[in-house]
Write a structure and sequence with these properties.
The protein is about 45% helix and about 10% strand. By secondary structure, the protein is of the alpha+beta class. The chain has two domains: about 40 residues, no CATH class; about 250 residues, no CATH class. A six-stranded mixed beta sheet has the order 1-10-9-6-5-4, with helices on both faces. It has a two-stranded antiparallel ribbon with strand order 2-3. The chain has a two-stranded antiparallel sheet with strand order 7-8. A hairpin with a 5-residue loop joins strand 2 and strand 3. Helix 1 packs across helix 2 and helix 5 crosses helix 6. It is elongated, with a radius of gyration of 32 Å.
């Protein structure tokens, strides 16, 4: 029976005839009184919920085993929300977003073993961990776990969180985890993703861009620029009878250098300078990988100059090509110090092409034959 039927039934019961008539003043008065009673009933405070009500609901609800487990995890994790919320708010996130982040993190950890989620909540209230600013690599999940004494499954679950901030900008994997778990990591103070001890900290996942792509030349223009060394072709270059796919122009440049020396270096530097990148030198032509890395490092320096960060980290969570294992490289210091540390780390760059001199960055045990399946030409 719907609300209207219930109302009519009650009205009819109260009238003398049992057949109410809206045109009858006495029947109309009864209806007005009945409506008034219903409105007052709606305005009353809802009945307070007690622990007994919750227990009665569980006892009477028809729940399968999976639902029981989920309900138990949700109930036992319920008390962790405030500690998460307080920590997120403390780290500089505004009223519009801190509740959203807190709910998302609570949802993530409620699927963990109860004892592990409790350790996470206890740690947030206690704090005390400092993110070290020395350049290093390894596994970021193990690294954070060692600093915080939290189980690795807790760290990994929180590390995988992604979201949007108040300005609808992406908050990448790892960023909120670092903010929550380290006292000296906060929301960005200027242009960067985060801050460490008040200094800008940029975090990149697998296959991330370092600013906009740099497109110095089209394919034909690239071939024309090196035609003085004997490079030929229309859409794809050839040299001394060897054909090169566009993703292998780093090998072509090394082959040209081995035959023509400094003049090839100078020609390439003119192209790099045209898109705002610094010169590379002869040592970078040792092999195709070192040349590709050198150009990627110059792109990193241009990006750092624009963003102004003093700390930088890349990890392997994220893109299709990522291993999601936690492998990472963290560098800190002056732009030159960061560039040198990156060059000596396990980072790698997407292969350059005539239309891509701003390659994506990532981290691997060994450089892949090509960086991503995605073709940005």
């Amino acid at each position: 029976m719907n609300v209207t039927d219930k109302l009519y039934t009650e009205w009819a019961w109260r009238t003398k005839t049992g057949v109410p008539d809206i045109n009858n003043p006495e029947d109309k008065a009864i209806l007005n009184k009945l409506i008034s009673e219903l409105v007052k009933e709606e305005d009353q405070e809802p009945k307070a919920i007690t622990k007994k009500d919750i227990i009665d609901y569980i006892n009477n609800a028809e729940l399968d085993d999976k639902q029981i487990v989920k309900l138990y995890q949700r109930v036992t994790n319920f008390g962790n929300y405030r500690s998460i919320r307080d920590k997120v708010k403390q780290k500089g996130y505004g009223d519009k977003i801190y509740k959203q982040y807190s709910q998302q993190i609570q949802s993530i950890i409620e699927d963990l073993p109860v004892e592990d989620s409790r350790k996470f909540s206890d740690f947030l209230q206690k704090g005390g961990a400092k993110f070290p600013t020395k350049s290093r690599g390894g596994n970021i999940i193990n690294d954070i776990s060692a600093q915080t004494n939290l189980p690795t499954n807790v760290v990994k679950a929180v590390f995988r969180h992604t979201a949007q901030d108040e300005k609808k900008r992406g908050v990448g994997m790892g960023e909120l985890a670092l903010i929550l778990l380290f006292d000296n990591v906060t929301n960005a103070v200027s242009k960067g993703d985060l801050a460490i001890d008040g200094q800008e900290f940029e975090v990149k996942g697998q296959g991330a861009k370092l600013g906009p792509n740099l497109r110095p030349l089209g394919n034909q223009a690239f071939i024309q620029a090196f035609s003085k060394f004997g490079v030929e072709g229309t859409n794809k270059p050839s040299y001394r009878g060897n054909n090169y796919i566009l993703q292998n122009i780093n090998q072509l440049l090394v082959d040209l250098y081995n035959d023509h020396g400094q003049e090839v270096v100078d020609t390439l530097n003119q192209i790099l300078n045209s898109v705002g990148l610094e010169n590379i030198d002869r040592a970078d032509f040792a092999n195709a990988t070192s040349l590709n890395t050198a150009i990627g490092i110059k792109h990193f320096l241009a990006y750092q100059k624009d963003e102004g960060f003093e700390h930088f980290m890349v990890h392997d969570f994220g893109a299709k090509g990522g291993g999601d294992t936690g492998k990472f490289a963290f560098v800190s210091g002056s732009p030159e110090q960061m560039a040198n540390s990156l060059k000596n780390s396990d980072i790698s760059f997407q292969k350059i092409t005539p239309t891509r001199f701003g390659p994506r960055i990532g981290i691997y045990d060994s450089p892949p034959s090509d960086y991503l399946e995605e073709d940005e030409e």
